[in-house]
Design goal:
The structure is a single chain. The protein has a four-stranded antiparallel sheet with strand order 4-5-7-6. It is globular, with a radius of gyration of 16 Å. By secondary structure, the protein is an alpha+beta fold. The structure holds zinc ion.
Length: 184
């Protein structure tokens, strides 16, 4: 669904509210702030990539659980609403594709990443986004998965590419990236 269409629908149903200093989307509190906060943070402390990833993974899982509990959504409906909200929230234009509910894997494409668009880097930098994807997908797949970014707009590519899968699979098939991005 087009972002504006979804936004109008949610506003009409009062599933997005702005009142008394709070923003709520589908019952979950959101915070609006200049996106530079995130790119400046990564510039200042690139060594925090795993910390940010795991914070965002926890937050994405909480958000997915809350949506599932409130709306009793089936796997793919939950995945779709998560994707739509990410797009509304201004992170870029997101698409989960090659979704496989048997192997709990997915490829994810992010166009015009707002964070990646703000600086150049030799390595992928969308650690917040991949954390949200991992956490949310953990609820969608109902099993623990992680997410690595294999290609990023910040490195000069056309868009960002991610792989969501159980950590064993990522460690085995993407050893080098997994070591840098997810290995604890
Ligand atoms: Zn990226």
């Amino acid at each position: 669904m087009a972002v504006l269409g979804l936004l109008s629908k949610l506003l009409l149903r009062k599933q997005i509210t702005f009142e008394n200093g709070s923003i709520n989307i589908l019952g979950q509190p959101f915070l609006m702030m200049p996106s530079r906060v995130i790119s400046l943070l990564f510039k200042a402390t690139p060594e925090n990539r795993k910390t940010m990833y795991y914070f965002c993974k926890a937050s994405g899982a909480e958000f997915g659980t809350a949506l599932q509990n409130n709306f009793n959504l089936k796997k793919d409906s939950l995945r779709k609403i998560g994707q739509d909200i990410f797009n509304i929230a201004g992170w870029g234009s997101l698409n989960f594709y090659k979704l496989d509910y048997e192997t709990n894997t997915a490829n994810v494409r992010l166009f015009k990443s707002t964070v990646a668009n703000q600086f150049q880097s030799k390595d992928p930098i969308d650690h917040t986004a991949r954390g949200f994807f991992a956490g949310f997908a953990t609820i969608v797949f109902d099993t623990d998965v992680d997410c690595i970014e294999t290609s990023c707009l910040a490195t000069g590519k056309d868009h960002c590419e991610f792989i969501v899968a159980p950590s064993d699979y990522l460690n085995k098939n993407y050893k080098k990236i997994s070591k840098v991005q997810i290995e604890r």
